[in-house]
């Protein structure tokens, strides 16, 4: 089964890093020198179209096509193109930016209308181990009528990126077999 997964999040939230961690040199990446002098992010390149890679899931049945979409809003046309026929969504949020909870909801408001499905995982990153332990996150983030699995991650660590994919696969499986069945 082919599953299309979108990795989303604001500029600098670790989308490209997550895919580099998984795919290394096999990552198909489209980046350009960073031009927005006003940006608070210290990055020399930014994703302009997408980063893309495919992984065969260990169940032997699924292939996950992972697309990291650009963070900058001027590339919104790419969100619309890549948002079609989506099976799952991973949203990365830099927990060190001001008001990360507000940032999550604002970002979800922008992106969800462009996706045909809203099954997903929201992950806060850039926290150290101590900060992560101190955070007492509920398992789900409520966003309007939706609930999205909520967790922390470090996208530089391959095991952690795989753990995000496992959480997402579990959410997608719930969708196929709803927990409300008698
Ligand atoms: N501490 C920490 N830094 C991260 C993490 N993910 C990404 N970074 C750093 O954040 C910066 C921006 O990451 P990048 O993947 O380019 O962000 P993108 O704009 O979402 O593609 C880079 O310097 C990364 O090394 C993380 O989980 N923890
Ligand atoms: Mg990027």
UniProtKB/TrEMBL annotation:
Protein name as annotated: ATP/GTP-binding protein
């Amino acid at each position: 089964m082919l599953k299309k997964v979108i990795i989303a999040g604001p500029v600098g939230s670790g989308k490209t890093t997550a895919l580099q961690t998984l795919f290394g040199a096999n990552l198909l990446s489209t980046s350009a020198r960073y031009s927005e002098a006003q940006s608070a992010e210290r990055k020399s390149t930014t994703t302009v179209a997408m980063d893309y890679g495919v992984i065969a899931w260990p169940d032997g049945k699924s292939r996950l096509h992972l697309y990291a979409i650009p963070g900058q809003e001027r590339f919104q046309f790419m969100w619309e193109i890549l948002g079609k026929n989506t099976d799952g969504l991973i949203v990365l949020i830099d927990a060190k930016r001001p008001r990360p909870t507000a940032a999550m909801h604002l970002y979800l408001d922008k992106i969800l209308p462009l996706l045909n499905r809203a099954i997903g995982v929201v992950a806060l990153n850039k926290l150290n181990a101590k900060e992560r332990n101190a955070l007492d996150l509920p398992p789900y983030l409520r966003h309007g009528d939706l609930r999205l699995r909520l967790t922390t991650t470090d996208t530089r660590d391959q095991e952690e990126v795989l753990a995000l994919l496992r959480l997402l696969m579990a959410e997608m499986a719930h969708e196929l077999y709803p927990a409300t069945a008698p």
